[in-house]
Amino acid sequence: MNVNIKIWVFIIPLFCLNSFAQQKQKIECNYSDSVVGSYYSKVQLAECFLMQDKSDSALKYYTDARKVFGLYQLNDRRNVMICLKNCSDTSILREWFRYGYYCAADSIGPENYMKLYHSFIPESLSSNLLETLQHTPKMKWAYIQEHEQISQILNPLYEIDQKYRSEEFANSNDKYILLQRKKSDKRNFSILISCYKRFGDFSTNRFSGLYKNADDAYRLILVHYFSNAENRVKQHDFFVGQVKKGNLDSRVYAQIVDNYLSDTSQVYGCHTSFCYNDTVVVYELSEPYKSRINRNRSRIFLQDIETLHQKQVWAWQNFSLYSFETLWVVIPEKSSDTVRDLAEKCKALMGPMVAGYTIYTR
Q: Which own/partner pairs from 130-133 qualify as long-range (CB within 8 Å, at least 24 positions apart)?
């Protein structure tokens, strides 16, 4: 069964223009565990309110989360934009825009900032907000060239990674093709590690907007290098450290690690649910696998696997535009396969890890 085709959705909404305008500036990296944990706890509270259709409260907690890093982790930006559209509490909106302006580049004045967000600003708030922004000082940013240099280095690696993974070579078993993939994966990872050695720790959330493939390059380099279990085990602690310092989104890292792990070796349980056509399959995990996965998730600020499943099912059944962690898409090998056929095949892969499963429809 082909289970290697997944959906990765990365949305770059309007308010990222602020970060693009200041990519040569640095927000300090390497936060403490408690600070990084507070970001995720606030985001998780916001998500609870999203599920209760309380956009005002959700945006309040998203605003509090932004105050931890100055920017959102990439996975949260889509949800924030929807909250902005749906929020009706002008005091919460005012604070979100005020803090956003505080973090914006010095080149963006109050009038320009409001032009960027005019479609989100209700008329009742417009005049008061302009006055608020005019009296809001800007965060003092320290210039740093390294983030742009790192982005420039990583940017071309995306095409190198994909050279032998295009549709033409997607299912190739040709030894030459496989060898070229392995060589490019090793070379790309070496270049990535050289960036850490040369520049020190850096935040993947602050790659330069001038180099739009840098983020995908970083992610895919790890995905493909970690397909080798020895590589993954050897490098795991270092990248968990980057998550704990706030430099790498924990949800993105979980997807990277589990990308090729669809059996009992899953670290974060990313393949314990999937969608197919108009259904979602969620697996009930047995002990000790569930406890192991929940411990691993907790170490990088993720909620337990049961809570993740509840969120995924809620979003699916309610046709929600909100996104949480990625819900994987399974593509069957045979067009005649039913969702139960696929559920049984995945269950067989996970073996003793699975106690049963539920099929949800909408």
A: 132/94, 132/97, 132/98, 133/97, 133/98, 133/101
> How is residue 185 written in tokens?
């994966």
Q: How many helices (H) and strands (E) does the chain have?
A: 16, 5
pTM here is 0.88
Q: Cα torsion at 308, 83, 41, 104 (round to 10°)?
A: 130
Q: How far apart are CA 4 and CA 56, in angstroms?
A: 38
Residue 144, sorted as left (phi over 0), alpha (psi -120 to 50) or beta, turns out to be: beta
Q: What single letter denotes the amino acid at residue 334?
A: K
The tokens describing 77, both together, are: 């930006």
Give tens-digit pLDDT for 220-247. 999 999 999 999 999 999 999 999 999 9
State yes or no: cis peptide before 288, omega within 30 of 0: yes
Beta bridge partners of 356: 284
Report whether 66 contacts 37 (CB < 8 A).
no
C-alpha atoms less than 13 angstroms from C-alpha of 165 in its C-beta half-sphere = 15
Q: Which of 274, 268, 285 is CA-nearest to residue 360? A: 274
Q: Extract the runs of DSSP E, i.e. beta strands, from 32-176.
A: 142-143
Between the alpha carbon of residue 307 and those of residues 44, 72, 285, the distances in Å are 10, 22, 13
| Pick from 110, 88, 100, 77: nearest CA to 11 | 77
